[in-house]
Structures are given as structure tokens and as C-alpha cells.
Write a structure and sequence with these properties.
By secondary structure, the protein is α/β, with parallel strands linked by helices. About 45% of the residues lie in helices and about 15% in strands. The protein is globular. Bound molecules: fructose -6-phosphate. Fructose -6-phosphate binds next to helix 4.
Length: about 350
Amino acid sequence: DMGGHDTYMHKEIAEQAEAVDRVLRGRIDDKFATVHLGGLNLDPREARSVRRIKILGCGTSYHAGQIGAQLIEELARIPADAEPASEFRYRNPVVDPDTLYVAVSQSGETYDVLAAVQELKRKGARVLGVVNVVGSAIAREADGGTYVHAGPEVCVVSTKCFTNTVVAFALLALHLGRIRDLSVADGRRIIEGLRRLPGQIDEILKAEPEIKRLALHFADAKSMLFIGRVRGYPVAREASLKLKEVSYIHAEAYPASELKHGPLALVEPAMPTVAIVPDDELLEKNRAALEEIKARSGRILAVAHQEQEKADHTIIVPKNEDELDPILMGIPLQLFAYHTALALGRDIDKPRNLAKSVTVE
Ligand code: F6R
């Protein structure tokens, strides 16, 4: 049942405020400015002894894991990184007893992720799952973890589950942070930020008519560049994946800082750029990148917290805490991908060559 929407993708984008509400519900502990994650199966002493965190997932779940790794480093100061599970399992990785592994999957059935988890467990590693489908293979195989509570996601292209997975990582990061060095004041600041998310998501979704207009404006592009820096880079990667999957327009994501090391050669009017420009300590650096693009007559669509003078168009999103901004900044670009695909007459819920869960090697 699409509840009045023309596609599941549109329905699932529209459901994100309630989905985020669901992942937060019952988990916040205001007294200690922390969160409780029931199934984690990691006591405080174990949580304190974790030296590294390695996050494994594929596609959109991998991108959510990249933001998750940044959240864990920022809030819990534990070195963390994400890697495609499909790469990890083929490279005879060093499995370190002080590393906590986290497997991320919407379906909980992705074979590359499951195989990575099985290999890790065979070698004695501790593996948590951040999974949407309750009781799925990866959820069962993991030592513990947390459900993402996005609800059923039918469209092959993941939207609401991406958002909820990142929120679940923010909860995990806050939990680990408050067991380690994160202050009560910072814990409160993050909790208040999390509570603002559902209202801010609805605010972003209200800009749909404007986003649709922009999508029609850029739908003739053969290729698009997506750029962002640090917190904005995984957002750019995910937005680029969304556009490719659903519209079949070629898109490439690059760190804004790397533009001058190559991709600037591609910039011309026929190659538009989508730039993620949060109001954080890198704002001036990001503005300089926009200037570089403008100087080469590149068309720019910015997603930002304030109007960007160098951009041809700016989609303004509400500001949250710096650490949580990536959760919001990709949402308008889900609608951008959707409306581009709609304009091009694509099969939105079932893009060619793709399947909802990839249970083969
Ligand atoms: C993106 C997409 C895929 C999946 C990937 C992992 O929109 O649908 O990239 O994210 O196949 O799937 P899960 O999360 O089920 O393991």
C-alpha cells in the first residue's frame, strides 16, 4: 500500500520523520545524558576497552557507516572507519582482538556482509549488527547490536533506512562517548539535536516543489559531480549513488579538497556540481571550492545552511549540531534523485539491473 504516493520511494522519503522518531523512542536517558541500546550486549567495561571500530556494509549501508565512523570518532574519540564488506572479505584482513566490528545492513541478508561477519566470528572477533530487518541472517549471526527501526523498505533504492541507520550510529556514538570522555553537557547537546531531527526533516520535505523544479533544470545533464568535505563527503557519496541508481545519470562524488588534484579538469557548463556546504568550521574552504568551479563556468547546486553566493541555486536546510548535520543534508538530494528519475521516466522502485537484497557473491 503506497498510501497515496505514486511510488514506494516517494512514500519512504516522506516517512522519515516518523521513522527517526521510532529509532529514538524509549532510548534516551535524560538523567545521565545518554542512551540505552538494549541488545548491544557490550557492558561498560568492555565498551571502555575497545581500541578501534571497523564498520562493514555495502552500498548505501556502507555510506551510512562512513558517517557512523565519523560520529564515533567525534563523540566517543575511538578511531573508527568504514570499509565495503565486499572488499574486506577478499583481502585477508588483520583481525585485531581490541577492535569492535560493526556490520550494517538494511535487509540483514546481503551475502558479502554476512560472509564478512562469519569470517570475523570464526576468527574470534566481536561483531555488532546495525540492521533493519528483525531476525535476519546478519542480526542472528552478530553478537549483539541495534535495530534501525526504519520499518519495511520496499523501494530497491534505500532512503529512510539510510537516515535511520545514521541516527542509530549517532545513538551508538553517544552511548560509547558517555561511557568514555563525552561530557554531560555535550551529551545533552546531542540529545537535544536528535530530538529536533523529526521536525527539521518535515521542514526539508516541504521544499519539494522547489527541489522538483531544480531536478527538472538539471535532468538534461549527462554527468554530475557531487562534492563535500569531511562530514559532507559521505553525504555527497550517498547522494551521487542515489542519482545514479534511480535516474541512470552518471554521477561521481569527490572530496571537495581533492578537486584541484584532478576532477577540476571535468568542470564545464555541461557538468553540473552538487555541493554539500554545511555551516561548520570548513565553510570558508567549501566556499573557495565553489569559486574554483564558478571560475570554470560550472553550474552549481548547493545544499547549505545559508544562501551560497557562488552557487546558481541553493537548497537551504535547517541547522542542527555540526555532528548531526549530515543526517539532514542528504534528504533534499533524495527528492532531487527521485524527481530527476520521474522526469526521465525511470522505473523508480525497481531500477534496471538492481535487486533489493543481494544474497549472492
Ligand atoms: C542503495 C542500495 C544498495 C544497498 C546495498 C546493501 O540504494 O539499495 O546499495 O544499500 O545493496 O544492502 P543492505 O543494506 O540490505 O545490506
